[in-house]
Amino acid sequence: MDNASIAITLVLISAFMHATWNAVVRAGSSRFMTLAMVDGTALLICLAALPLVNVPNLEVWVYVLISVMLNTVYRLFLIKAYETGDFGQVYPVMRGVPPVLVALFSYVLLHEQLSFPSMTGVLLICAGIISLAFVRGMTAQMFKPILMAVCAGVFIASYTVVDAKGVRASETVLQYIIYLTVFQSIPIPLLAFFKARSALIQAVRGHWRVGAMGGVFYVSSYGLVLFALSLDAVARVSALRETSVIIGAIIAALFFRERFGWRRMLSAFVIVCGIVLIKVST
Questions:
Q1: How far apart are CA 41 and CA 51, in angstroms?
Q2: Start and end of every EamA domain (predicted)?
Q3: Spatial distance between the Cα atoms of 282 and 118, rounded to a whole number of angstroms
């Protein structure tokens, strides 16, 4: 199996895990506290793994710190989006924005060239994801969560490009994953502790298992996609990861009782077509 095939496999597994931990955050009675538990679990896992890797050099630290800032802002938008919107509509929008932006960023900053089939695949995936978000008519009430999701998507695209450069500057992929996760997992639990200490303690006591599962899936999901970034073009990896939207639509229908319908199935088919184009052009 070549590097591109390995990258595709890893990203599809990552997509499943990503949709699942997002569903965990959305399902929580307090999205802020649930995300704090997810990040807290990730922090503990990666602190235990620190002895496995060397301390990064200065260049890698720059990428880590920039990514931490971008990830923190993304998390705040994610919380606001899930507090006010449906999972089946917010999640596709949030994941639909990054692929096109990453393709543009990777072309300008990383000088990566996309073939016509690959670019067509990226655009099909984006079209399918965006169409999933708008299967129902827009209302004034839905404007805020959609806006929050779009903002979250912009920051996802930004930190994806930064992380791609950080991984390539690191001694190993594992080094970057561990140090990045340690530092980006601190701000939200810290904010939760100082904002509502008693609520955080109560959330941990009552729902620590769910938070722990979300944290394990979060670490695994991001670790897999970062490793894939070191094997294949950033835009292709980012686009394939957005197939998590298909899983998200299924989760929305089964667990949140949101409508799936033929339009969403058609959108899923369009996304699959995009995956095939990317696969055959690799």
A1: 18
A2: 6-132, 145-278
A3: 8
Give the containing element (helix H, strand E) for 239.
helix 234-241
**Through-space distance between the first and last CA atoms of the chain, rounded to whole angstroms:** 13
In this structure, what token pair is assigned to residue 163? 């992380």
Domains of the chain, residue spans: 3-280
**Collapsing DSSP states into helix, strand and coil, what is residue 139?**
coil
Contact 161, 127 (CB under 8 A): no
Q: In this structure, are residues 28 and 14 in contact, taking their beta carbons and an 8 Å threshold? A: no
- For 10-34, the pLDDT digits (tens) are 888 888 898 898 888 988 778 999 9
Six-digit token pair at 64? 């880590």
CA distance 152 to 270: 23
Amino acid at 257: R
- Distance, CA of 236 to chain centre: 15
Query: 232: alpha, beta or left, given left = phi > 0 and alpha = psi -120 to 50?
Result: beta
CA of 244: how far to CAs of 16, 40, 94, 176, 259, in Å? 6, 23, 11, 23, 17
92 and 18 Cβ atoms separated by less than 8 Å: no
Task: Tell me the torsion sign for CA atoms 158, 85, 131, 139.
Answer: negative
For residue range 61-97, what is the model confidence (pLDDT) as tens digits? Answer: 999 999 999 999 999 999 999 988 888 778 888 877 7
CB 56 within 8 A of CB 176: yes
Report if pTM > 0.85.
no
